[in-house]
Structures are given as structure tokens and as C-alpha cells.
Amino acid sequence: MSWTDERIATLRKMWEGGATASEIATELGGVSRNAVIGKAHRLGLKARPSPVKANEKKKPVAAPAAKKPAAPAPVAAAPRAPEPTERAPVEAAERPAPRPPAPAPRARAGAGPG
What we know:
32% helix; mainly alpha
């Protein structure tokens, strides 16, 4: 797809008319929303505010109201499970037998000083 003069004119007209990039891409066909945005940027068309940010409205700050009734007391949380107790030391008879020490590495034949 190439940007012909006719397609650019359509993009300009729809962009300035307030159409979204997705709508313009659908109208032109064979082009993505991002391609429309990129071309509009390269043409120097007026940037528009983000629709996401434009729809966000700040909550008005409420004026201090008359004294509000007291909030109800917080509900107590469920009791926690008891902590595990320490285990008694294991008797020597119950302990596993200690491992024998690892054998020392053997020297290879013919690897001595020489």
C-alpha cells in the first residue's frame, strides 16, 4: 500500500473531522491504526489529546461537611493459628548413622613428577 494523494487527502479530512485512527484505517483499508498515526505525525497534523486521559475526570474536592456520625468499631480479626512448638532433641539411637568421609582423590598413573 502506498500513500497516494487521494489517500492522504482522506486521512487529512477525517483526522481534522475528529475521526479516530482506527476509523481512518478502516476507511482507507490495507493500513493499520499505527500507520495512520505515523503518517499524521509525519504530515504535521495537529496532535489530539488522548481519549483515555480526556475521559478521566478529577473528583471534585468535597467541602468539609457537618460532623459525621462516628464510624462503627472495627470487627476483631479471627484468632491466628498457634505457632508450632519446638521439637524435642532427637535421641542418639534415633539419629541416622553418620556418613563415612569421602575417599581422597587417587593419583593417575604416570602423572607424577618427572
